[in-house]
Amino acid sequence: MKEFDIEETFLDYFNDIEDPRNGKNKMYSANEILFVSICAIICGAESWRDMVEFGILKLEFLKQYLPFVNGIPSKNTFCRFFAALKPESFKTCFISWVRSLQILDNDIIAIDGKTIRHSFDSVNETSAIHMVSAFAAKSRLVLGQQKVDNKSNEITAIPKLLKLLDLRGSIVTIDAMGTQKEIAKQIIDDGGDYILALKGNHSTLHDDVTDFLQDKDNLKYCKTFQESDCGHGRIELRKCQATEELDWLGKLKFHGMKTIFCIESQRIIRETETVERRYYISSLRADPIKLNTATRDHWAVENCLHWTLDMTFNEDASRIRSKNAPENIAMIRHTVLNLLRQAKNKFKNSSLKGLRKKAGWDNSTLAVILRQKF
Hints:
This protein is of the alpha+beta class. The protein folds into 2 domains: 10-98 and 323-370, no CATH class; 101-306, Transposase Inhibitor Protein From Tn5, Chain A, domain 1. It is 38% helix and 20% strand. It has a 9-stranded mixed beta sheet with strand order 3-2-1-4-5-9-8-7-6, with helices on both faces. Helix 7 links the parallel strand 4 and strand 5. Residues 1-7 have low confidence and may be disordered.
């Protein structure tokens, strides 16, 4: 047995990845290319050249896992491999790995999209890619991702992403773009519950729900919860008002829909006060405490995923843009983020950025990260 054994951890789930290269005389296996890339990004790599330089300096460490008989691939080899690799093949392996974790009992699955701003290719006239991700708000893990097709939007990508996930026992939260009757039905049919935001894309439903919840005569049908929070010079009062009185909705009602509710946020920063009201529909019962918590947890996808990818991984500045490469490298970042979040429990005083540095400096730290069995 090798000194660092990662058998039955994440790498095993990527053994069946479909190698896109033709011919039998390959100097580097698909697993070798993938493994160098994952290790390099754990340790701070952002470009093909970074991956090559990392691999050369860490070759002896890497050989404890895979042969690397021919050393480290060139940057052109990395680029060609990931440009040709079918994202669906990579995604299938990623989803299998995440499903093996079995940690999603009653979790909030937040669905949201993010554009990788510098992934456009002016030469080939392709726009920056937009990825819709599923994020477990409590576990802080990326569950899956789906690229939005060119000349399309999140409405077509979300059902494809949901189809990859095990929704049983989970609450799926989506912003107004995903508030579609077909999506709501898909979530219910797959054993989950939903909380969907209302905005102008469903103007009639939004206006009717707004009018009902703002009518004082309807307060007798509502359950209310209020909480306050303060810190960093800010005071926030947050009120959730929910009702199961929906008979008046008629054909506007979604499949499985049981509740409409409003979240009112009153923020006081110094002498400035703002009030914001957001409206939602849900398949859950009118429990204002649970609904309030779930809508707050949804924002973890912004704060703990999108923000982290930009601030810790510098994703928006990435110049990787050839064919399938931006989507594949985005999935590698998600893989790395999952590994780092789990390993962070073993390094109590380290931030994600600090843990990446430590992994680059210390082989034993990198080995611990790679051995995560969740």
